[in-house]
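User: quick one, fold this
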Amino acid sequence: MKRIIQHSITLPAPPDRLFDIYLDPVMHGAIAGGPVTISPAVGSVFLAFDGMLSGKTIAVIPKKHIVQLWRGKHWKPEDRDSILVLTFLPDGADGKIELTHLDVPDYDFDDVNKGWTEYYWKPWKAYLEKELQKQGKRAA
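Assistant:
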């Protein structure tokens, strides 16, 4: 049976802003720490972490859901693309992202699971807190 990565993270921004940040190459790149190719257009290519991650956006419900195919550069040719589903929800004044990541190869499952926290959630929270500090809205 395939294991499923599931995360739920609340970040200090409304859900529509989180949605926009994820699909904006400049802001997404600021979070990821390097250039990112991404677009809200269905069928568009996704590249991040110097090509270590690649994929395609396969469905978008504006301000609510993003579905992408993902694969690691080091995955075996016979490995299926994984499926990433992001759902953006309100959580008080903040926004919540619910992530479901399917079909990650077993040999990379733990690293991908940890990678979401290390390479996305922590830097994304720091990015937003810095933005809020500049606006004088919240202390870190």
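User: anything notable?
Assistant: The chain is about 35% helix and 35% strand.
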